[in-house]
Structure prediction request, 348 residues.
Amino acid sequence: MRIVFVKNLNVDEVIKKNVLNGDGKILLKAGTKITREHINYLKSSMIVFVYVEDEMLSDVRIDFEMEILKEDVLNKMPRMFDEIVSGNYVESTEALKNVETLVDHIIEEGEVNTNLFEVKAYDDYTYIHSLDTSIMASFLGISLGYDENRLKELSKAAILHDIGKIKVDNELINKSSDLTNEEFSEVRRHAIYGLEILKSAKGISEEIIKGVAEHHERVDGKGYPLGLSGEQISQFAKIISVCDVFTAVSANRCYRDRFDPKEAYELILSGSGTMFDPVIVNKFRETFYVYPLGCHVKLSNNKEGYVVKQNKKFPDRPIIRIIEGDNQFFYEFDLLQNTNVVIEEIIM
Ligand SMILES: [Fe+2]
Prediction:
């Protein structure tokens, strides 16, 4: 994806992100092939930039495919959870195949979707949260060198990690604040409930069950339900734990204030060695970028620009195209070469 001034836009280029006007109304949808009329329309609507597909990439189609797959899994999740809870082996195996399809897609696409920023744009509804956790976990699994089978096991564990919440009173789940001690420990019991559900559902591997049962354990032993530490915790659980916290924090922030992916990202890094396994946190750093390509940002030197390139292994220090003089000229600014400057905010 790249950013193009509307005045330089060519016919037949493909719009990569929805073009919105100041009121948030969609003027052109992602995937639209530009015509002369579109260019005139954008100009008359005072649109200065658009995001377009890079010629050599066809990831508009790919992203759509991911969205369609996600939606499909999402629609089938309530049924999938029900089948597993009621122990219907054939149906639950069938339902979990949807997750496999998603993993197949992720394996095919490699790095295309590893932008943390994209993860946040949902509410914290359990199914969506579980799905996001599963997708993130799959990317981490790839970085850890998992083969296809193990990756599918991991993503199933991740999508099922909160299945135990089904047995917890919904009111308690949604309450989240001002819980009494008793209520709090009931909510925490969802890890044990998850273990029980998966144990009685046939055909779920021991590794998946551990991933679910231990996803709130911490490497320093201060987690629950058992207070396991370090090597006692399964690797699946350690991966799920990082992805679970990241997606949950991102979703919550989204409600309250303007979302800052850096904050959620820092929270993961700062939990290394206490909440999280340092090996997993390092992989997390290597795998995901904080700011996606095309993201409009403001820097601490008061300049504004767009993320145009990532620096491998430096997820929060991309290369920014700075725009100056009423969009008259621009230049590239590498945050890796200019370590005294940071991204201060994302401009929506
Ligand atoms: Fe949980």
The radius of gyration is 22 Å. The beta strands are 2-5, 19-20, 26-28, 49-52, 296-299, 304-311, 314-324, 329-334, 343-346. Confidence is low (pLDDT under 50) at residues 56-62, 119-124. The CA atoms of residues 8 and 143 lie 38 Å apart.
